[in-house]
Design goal:
With about 150 residues, the protein is of the alpha+beta class. The chain has three helices and ten strands, in the order E-H-E-E-H-E-H-E-E-E-E-E-E.
Length: about 150
């Protein structure tokens, strides 16, 4: 079945970090040949590398937020979904804050708050991999530069 809203890839986009621009973060990842896990917005404080399942043809729609500010830079790294799934990447679990407590401890890193008409990040189609880092090599990654 052909679906234009489904993709077999996951994309890690760069964004400003500390005093580095999204472009500088992209270059840093290239030089170090690894994407570092972060604890930003991760419940349970597990380090994770985050991805979007958004098709490459629609990636521009998640780079710009509603207020026309850029959440992510036009730089990223694309991996096959199967490869990352085999390494432990999983879709986040969008649910109300009141449901967080029912998650087993080992799944809490996947929780993303979702409240109808209040808090909705489902458009990011986020996946997470609990890890300190992902090594890059030319056999497992495609560079995205817009």
């Amino acid at each position: 079945m052909i679906r234009f809203d489904i993709t077999n890839t996951l994309i890690h986009l760069t964004r400003e970090r500390n005093d580095l621009s999204a472009k500088e973060v992209f270059k840093k990842i290239l030089n170090e040949k690894k994407i570092l896990g972060s604890i930003d917005n991760i419940r349970g404080k597990s380090r994770c590398v985050c991805f979007s399942e958004t098709p490459i043809s629609a990636i521009g729609q998640i780079i710009v937020q509603e207020d026309d500010r850029f959440k992510y830079g036009p730089y990223g790294f694309m991996f096959t979904k199967k490869n990352l799934f085999d390494l432990g990447a999983r879709p986040v679990i969008y649910q109300p804050e009141s449901d967080f407590g029912i998650l087993p401890e080992e799944l809490k890193y996947r929780h993303v708050r979702f409240e109808i008409e209040k808090t909705d990040y489902t458009w990011e189609r986020e996946w997470r991999m609990k890890t300190d880092f992902i090594n890059l090599d030319s056999s497992n990654v495609t560079l995205i530069v817009s």
